[in-house]
């Protein structure tokens, strides 16, 4: 199976590695070619343009910044793609983008489209252990089995309606963004009170409100180690998408807007490219 990966940031690079490890033929493209070039040493073909990347592909994965960037790239790529190419749209975009704009683009170009954002960061992407939240026609499940089997530890087929994968992704990211900010807040408060913040993590361990992610991000915050698995800038974008979806559905967005403001504060202070745990910088310098 020939798979094109459009976008080789943290997630796209990890997906490409997982696809290659599974034995699939992989072509990669990135707007900044230098970010895709290292994948050649791992066995990927590096394309000079989106049309070149998809020209003989059976499937294409888009893992780009937002809905507009996905639309621009795929409007360029799809006319060069084989008719009926499988399009796995894995970027985190708005519900409108996933369910309407991109689905219509696929339909107009003869592509078979699945709205399939992913849960996970750098390590799960590299290990092929992402969670895929897929929404699309049931008849596409078997054709995509090899692709999803390579990149995912778990595939959740949400529905056959494109957009529902993205809806569930925004629900999940509302929790993730909030728990990371809450972890940062508690560690900042512990330090402000003159306590060892590791005492907070130990107190939580094994309790009814414990979570593995609390310790992953908590230890990173305490050590001030913010190598990006998912960046602050991404959290800024996603909390904005979540707030917009909440407003559109009549859901009170007060909490996520407050959370988002802390990520924006950290980004404005120069920490946008660091891991989202660097939201800690919004609470304490």
Layout: helices, strands, pairs:
Layout: E1 2-6, H1 10-21, E2 25-29, H2 33-36, E3 45-46, H3 50-54, E4 59-62, H4 67-77, E5 86-89, H5 95-109, E6 112-115, E7 118-119, H6 122-127, E8 130-135, H7 145-151, E9 152-159, H8 164-192, H9 197-204, H10 212-223, H11 232-248, H12 254-271
Helix pairs in contact: 4-5, 8-10, 8-11, 8-12, 11-12
Could you please describe the fold and organization of this structure?
The protein is an alpha/beta fold and 285 residues long. The chain has helices spanning 10-21, 33-36, 50-54, 67-77, 95-109, 122-127, 145-151, 164-192, 197-204, 212-223, 232-248, 254-271, and strands spanning 2-6, 25-29, 45-46, 59-62, 86-89, 112-115, 118-119, 130-135, 152-159. The strands form 2 sheets. The protein has a 6-stranded parallel beta sheet with strand order 3-2-1-4-5-6, sandwiched between helices. A 3-stranded mixed beta sheet has the order 7-8-9. Strand 8 (130-135), helix 7 and strand 9 form a beta-alpha-beta unit. The mean pLDDT is 98.
């Amino acid at each position: 199976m020939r798979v094109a990966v459009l976008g080789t940031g943290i997630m796209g690079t990890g997906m490409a590695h997982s696809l290659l490890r599974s034995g699939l033929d992989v072509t990669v493209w990135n707007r900044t070619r230098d970010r895709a070039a290292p994948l050649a040493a791992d066995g990927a073909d590096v394309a000079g343009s989106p049309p070149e990347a998809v020209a003989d592909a059976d499937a294409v994965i888009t893992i780009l910044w937002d809905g507009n960037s996905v639309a621009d790239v795929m409007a360029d790529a799809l006319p060069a793609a084989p008719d009926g190419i499988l399009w796995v749209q894995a970027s985190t975009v708005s519900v409108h983008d996933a369910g309407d704009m991109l689905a219509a683009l696929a339909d107009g170009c003869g592509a078979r489209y699945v709205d399939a954002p992913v849960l996970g960061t750098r390590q799960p992407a590299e290990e092929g252990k992402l969670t895929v939240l897929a929404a699309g026609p049931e008849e596409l499940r078997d054709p995509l089995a090899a692709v999803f089997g390579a990149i995912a530890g778990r595939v959740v087929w949400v529905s056959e309606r494109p957009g529902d994968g993205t809806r569930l992704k925004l629900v999940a990211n509302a929790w993730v963004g909030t728990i990371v900010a809450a972890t940062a807040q508690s560690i900042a408060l512990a330090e402000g009170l003159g306590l060892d913040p590791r005492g907070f993590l130990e107190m939580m361990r094994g309790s009814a409100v414990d979570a593995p992610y609390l310790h992953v991000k908590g230890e990173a915050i305490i050590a001030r180690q913010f190598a990006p698995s998912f960046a602050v800038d991404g959290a800024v974008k996603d909390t904005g998408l979540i707030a917009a979806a909440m407003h559109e559905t009549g859901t009170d967005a007060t909490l996520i807007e407050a959370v988002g403001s802390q990520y924006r504060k950290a980004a404005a202070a120069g920490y946008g490219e660091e891991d989202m745990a660097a939201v800690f910088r919004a609470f304490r310098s």
